[in-house]
Amino acid sequence: MNTSTVTAPAQDLETRLRSLSRTVVAPLGDAFTDALGAAPTRPALLVEGLGIAADAAMQAGASEVAVGALHECIAHLASLQDEFPGGRSDLLAILSGWLPETRDKEDRQARQAAFRAMSTITGTRYEALYNAYVYAPSSTDPDLCDTAWIVARLGLRRLRHGPSIRLTSMRADETGVDVPRRLTLSGEPLESSPRRLLIPEFCSDPLPRLEVQESTGRFDLVLGAKSPPLDRAADLALGSLSRGLVPRHRTEDRAWDYTMHTATRPAAVQVIDLLVHRDLFGGRPPIATFQLGGGNPDLRGPQFEQADQIDLPLEQRALGLGLSRLGSSEIPRCQELLTHSFERIGWNPDAFRAHRVRVMYPAPMVTILLWLELPGRAT
Questions:
Q1: Which end of the chain has less Cβ packing within 10 Å, N or C?
Q2: Distance (Å, rounded) from C-alpha 372 to C-alpha 259?
Q3: pTM for this structure?
Q4: Which of 297, 316, 329 lies closest to 359 in space, CA to CA?
């Protein structure tokens, strides 16, 4: 059969894909029915690859009419794939947008491939990334919120010796005060030492070799060039407290608050917990969005952040009040870390609602934003 005469219908892409998916089923079934005496009922009976299947069906006795129809469909599919620079992979990505049942599998495989590639490129990887962000009524101003940031970087490994690894940064203003102003979890000034962010009880023992590097008013806490050693993984936990940075109610220029979470190095899993005091934000759950890069999100809300948004699968759950349901095999000491942090700050964990987001193989360069709508002031 001369496939060069086969041309794709002059229709839009979605129509062509749906038509092809319908028409390919009948000739494929006819070919196997002719060859096997009945339609195949087990995956093991299917020959890998449509072209191989067509040739095998012909050799097994299928009619030229049935196999010819199948070859015609194969030609249409090949022509369709050739329209995309990435061929089959690009076509699968497009199909996944219309076929939800394939979306999770395709996305997971792509993100897992990116994890492996970035592990090789950077020479590093994490077993797990954990971020917790906590909102509480301000201890100094009834119109504001205090916030806490608690993170754990688990199973950090070097796959080869390389440059230093930045864990966190502080930027000081002219007075030397961290901007935005942060404190230790116990409420003490950080001054110019990001080491004070460490929660040593939840770091590896012995602690990996850490250095503070200063550059134009910025202080970086970094792991040295050979830390951790190639034969050892490192766990690191950090936390800070900020007073009165977030309004409790909607203002003229601010209707939402958000937290941003970006996997700067490859990780097998990322878990984010948002803990919100029961007296804040009317008990509304957060809205999660994905965005390429960082930038400054629009404080009017996620509906105004359409550019550079992408659609990725994630798990999002409300875990009720307190810390009792926050156990995780991927973050083994999660509850213990949060309990310790709440005790240092002086907050009652039973007064906080917990929301969890979990992403397998978080994509490089993609930021997860968790949005909370600010309520209007009661009149």
A1: C
A2: 9
A3: 0.73
A4: 316
Q: Is 294 exposed, middle or buried (0-12, 13-18, 19+ CB in 10 A)?
A: exposed
Closest-CA residue to 2 (of 76, 80, 72): 72
Distance CA 246, CA 242 (A): 9
CB 30 within 8 A of CB 66: yes
Average pLDDT, the chain: 82
CA distance 208 to 181: 27
pLDDT in tens, 263-302: 889 999 999 999 999 999 988 889 999 888 767 888 888 8
Q: Cis omega before residue 180 (within 30°)?
A: yes
Give bridge partners of residue 291 from the DSSP assignment.
Answer: 309, 367
Under a CB-based contact definition with an 8 Å cutoff, are residues 331 and 129 in contact?
A: no
**Taking the CA atoms of the chain, what radius of gyration do you get in angstroms?**
27
User: Strand (E) positions, the chain?
Assistant: 124-125, 128-137, 144-158, 165-171, 210-215, 218-223, 234-247, 256-262, 269-277, 287-292, 309-310, 315-321, 352-360, 366-373
Cα–Cα distance between 310 and 286 in angstroms, integer?
18
Over residues 7-35, the pLDDT tens digits come to 444 566 667 766 666 666 566 666 656 65
Q: Which two tokens stand for residue 337?
A: 């870390």
